[in-house]
C-alpha cells in the first residue's frame, strides 16, 4: 500500500526531476505513483444515459486513480447504478440520492462535484464544513454572492479546493504560454482582448412531461424556484437562467478566466460593464428578472439565457475584455466563433484549444522560449505541470493552493455574472471591485443573489 509518507517522498523526487524542464506534463498514466489508498473519495453528480452532461462522471473516474472511491451520489438512481457498474468499481460503491446523507455517513476525505451548475456551491459548502477537500466542476457559482460565500468558507476551513477549469493546466499548455507571453510583454502595452464564446439556443416554449422513474426531480431543482419536469429543462439546463448562465458562465468561465489572468486582473475585477444582447424567445423585452427569481413573475418553459451579445469589461489598469457570441472585426477581416484574440501596442496573438498563433508567436527565439518556460513555471506556482486532477491531489498532500484556486475563479465568475446582469438590467454598470458592489444601480445589486428554497440544504451533522 502506498502510504502518505511514501507519497510525499515520491512527489519530492518527481518534482526534483522536473525542475530542469517545467514543461514536462506528468501523465495520469503515472497515477499509480501518486495514488494514496488511504484517501477516500465520493462522487456527487455523475451524469449518465438520461442526461446531457456526464463531466461529473468523467472527472470522478479521473479522481479514482489517485485514491479510493467509496460512494456515488446522484438524484437519478439510474445514473448511480451506471457509474457504479463501471469496471473500475464493479458495483462495490455505496449509492446515495441525498448528498447530505453521503457526506454525514461516509465522511470522505475528498468530494468530486459534477452536478448541474446551481448545485455546485450548496454542495461544496456542505462538504467543506464537513471536513472534505473539494474538486468542483465549473462554473462554480450561480451568483456573485455565492462566490463571496464559497471564498469565505474555503478560507475558514483551510480545505483544498480545485475548480475544473482545465485550460489552466491542459490543452497542450497553449493557454499557459499565451498568458506568459502577455505578461512578459510580447504584444506590448495597452492590452485588450476579444473573446468569442458562442451563443445559446433560444427555442421554446416546450411541453412538460412525466418525471422519469428513479429521478428525484424536486431534489434536482433543489434551491431554485419550483418547476415542472421537461426533457429540455433537465438535459439543457445551461440555457435556463434558473440553473446556470448560458454561454457567459459556460465558455465564459474558461476564456474570461484566461484573459483576466493574462492581463493581471484575476484577483480583482472590472470597474465598468456595458453591452447589448438578446435572450431566448420566451423572454419579453424589459422583463423583470428580479421578480422572476423571487417567484413574482413567470416565463414560459423555454431557453431563457442570452443568445447573442457583445459586452465590454474595462479594468482599472486600462485593459479591456470584449465578450462576444461570435467575434467579427470592424473591417470584417477577422472572425472566429471561439477563442481569445489579445491585441497590444506591439502585435496580437490568438489562442484557443486548438492553436496559439500570431506574429509574436512566430518570432519567438530559443532564448524567448526558455524565458517563457520560466514564466510558465512561475504561473504554475513552481509545481510540475501535471494533469488538472493530479495537481489537485498533489495540493491535497502538501496543503498548497491548486492552479485553479477558488479566489481567482470567483473573480472570473463575477465578470461572467456581470455580463449577464448588464444584459438583464439593460444599462451600463459601474462596479467597485474592492467592495464588490455595483455603484448606483439597485436592480443590479439585487441580481447578485437569488432567493433559495431550503428544503434540500443544511449543515453537516
Q: How far is the N terminus from the C terminus?
A: 31 Å
Task: Quote the CATH topology of the largest domain.
Answer: Dihydrodipicolinate Reductase, domain 2
What is the global morphology? Answer: globular
Q: Enumerate how many helices there are, as a single number.
A: 18
In which order are the strands of the major sheet placed?
A: 15-14-13-7-10-9-8-16-17
Domains (count): 2
**Contiguous uncertain segments of 5+ residues:** 1-29
Structural class of the secondary structure composition? alpha/beta
Helix content: 25-40%
Q: Characterize the main sheet.
A: 9 strands, mixed
Q: Could you tell me the strand content as a percent range?
A: 15-25%
Supply the CATH architecture of the largest domain.
2-Layer Sandwich
Can you give the mean pLDDT?
Answer: 92
Rounded to an integer in angstroms, the radius of gyration calculated over CA atoms is 22 Å
- CATH class call of the largest domain: Alpha Beta
**Multimer state:** single chain
E-strand count: 17
Domain Gfo/Idh/MocA-like oxidoreductase N-terminal: 41-164
Pfam families: GFO_IDH_MocA, GFO_IDH_MocA_C2
Protein name: Putative oxidoreductase YcjS
Domain Gfo/Idh/MocA-like oxidoreductase bacterial type C-terminal: 206-274, 366-456
Write the layout of secondary structure elements.
Blueprint: H1 4-18, H2 31-34, E1 40-44, H3 55-63, E2 68-73, H4 77-84, E3 94-96, H5 99-106, E4 110-113, H6 120-129, E5 133-137, H7 144-157, E6 161-164, H8 174-183, E7 192-196, H9 217-221, H10 231-235, H11 247-250, H12 252-262, E8 270-279, H13 289-293, E9 306-315, E10 320-324, E11 327-328, E12 335-336, E13 339-344, E14 347-351, E15 356-357, H14 359-362, H15 366-379, H16 388-398, H17 406-425, E16 429-432, E17 437-438, H18 442-446
Parallel strand pairs: 1-2, 1-4, 2-3, 4-5, 5-6, 7-10
Antiparallel strand pairs: 7-13, 8-9, 8-16, 9-10, 11-12, 13-14, 14-15, 16-17
Amino acid at each position: 500500500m502506498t502510504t502518505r509518507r511514501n507519497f510525499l517522498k515520491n512527489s519530492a523526487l518527481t518534482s526534483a526531476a522536473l525542475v530542469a524542464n517545467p514543461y514536462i506534463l506528468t501523465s495520469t498514466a503515472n497515477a499509480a505513483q501518486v495514488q494514496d489508498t488511504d484517501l477516500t473519495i465520493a462522487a456527487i453528480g455523475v451524469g449518465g444515459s438520461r442526461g446531457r452532461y456526464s463531466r461529473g462522471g468523467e472527472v470522478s473516474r479521473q479522481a479514482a486513480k489517485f485514491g479510493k472511491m467509496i460512494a456515488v451520489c446522484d438524484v437519478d438512481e439510474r445514473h448511480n447504478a451506471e457509474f457504479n457498474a463501471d469496471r473500475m468499481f464493479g458495483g462495490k460503491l455505496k449509492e446515495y440520492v441525498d448528498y447530505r446523507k453521503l457526506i454525514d455517513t461516509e465522511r470522505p476525505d475528498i468530494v468530486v462535484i459534477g452536478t448541474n451548475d446551481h448545485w455546485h456551491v450548496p454542495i461544496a459548502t456542505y462538504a467543506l464544513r464537513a471536513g472534505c477537500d473539494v474538486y468542483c466542476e465549473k462554473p462554480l457559482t450561480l451568483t456573485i454572492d455565492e462566490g463571496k460565500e464559497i471564498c469565505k468558507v474555503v478560507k475558514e476551513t483551510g480545505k483544498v479546493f480545485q475548480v475544473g477549469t482545465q485550460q489552466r493546466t491542459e490543452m497542450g499548455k497553449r493557454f499557459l504560454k499565451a498568458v506568459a507571453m502577455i505578461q512578459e510583454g510580447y504584444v506590448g502595452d495597452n492590452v485588450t482582448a476579444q473573446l468569442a464564446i458562442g451563443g445559446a439556443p433560444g427555442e421554446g416554449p416546450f411541453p412538460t412531461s412525466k418525471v422519469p422513474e428513479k429521478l428525484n426531480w424536486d431534489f434536482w431543482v433543489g434551491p431554485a424556484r419550483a418547476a415542472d419536469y421537461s426533457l429540455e429543462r433537465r438535459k439543457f439546463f445551461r440555457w435556463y437562467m434558473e440553473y446556470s448562465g448560458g454561454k457567459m458562465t459556460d465558455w465564459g468561465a474558461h476564456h474570461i478566466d484566461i484573459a483576466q489572468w493574462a492581463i493581471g486582473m484575476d484577483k480583482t475585477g472590472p470597474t465598468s460593464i456595458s453591452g447589448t444582447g438578446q435572450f431566448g424567445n420566451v423572454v419579453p423585452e424589459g422583463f423583470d428578472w428580479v421578480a422572476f427569481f423571487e417567484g413574482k413573475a413567470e416565463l414560459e418553459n423555454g431557453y431563457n439565457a442570452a443568445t447573442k451579445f457583445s459586452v465590454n469589461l474595462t479594468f482599472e489598469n486600462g485593459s479591456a475584455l470584449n465578450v462576444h457570441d461570435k467575434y467579427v472585426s470592424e473591417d470584417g477581416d477577422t472572425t472566429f466563433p471561439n477563442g481569445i484574440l489579445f491585441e497590444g501596442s506591439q502585435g496580437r496573438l490568438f489562442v484557443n484549444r486548438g492553436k496559439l498563433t500570431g506574429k509574436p508567436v512566430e518570432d519567438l527565439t530559443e532564448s524567448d522560449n526558455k524565458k517563457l518556460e520560466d514564466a510558465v513555471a512561475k504561473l504554475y506556482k513552481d509545481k510540475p505541470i501535471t494533469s488538472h486532477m493530479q495537481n489537485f491531489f498533489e495540493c491535497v498532500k502538501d496543503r498548497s493552493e491548486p492552479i485553479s484556486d477558488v479566489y481567482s475563479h470567483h473573480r472570473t465568475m463575477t465578470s461572467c455574472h456581470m455580463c449577464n446582469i448588464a444584459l438583464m438590467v439593460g444599462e451600463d454598470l459601474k462596479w467597485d471591485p474592492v467592495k464588490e458592489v455595483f455603484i448606483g444601480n439597485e436592480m443590479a445589486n439585487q441580481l447578485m443573489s437569488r432567493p433559495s428554497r431550503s428544503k434540500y440544504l443544511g449543515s453537516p451533522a
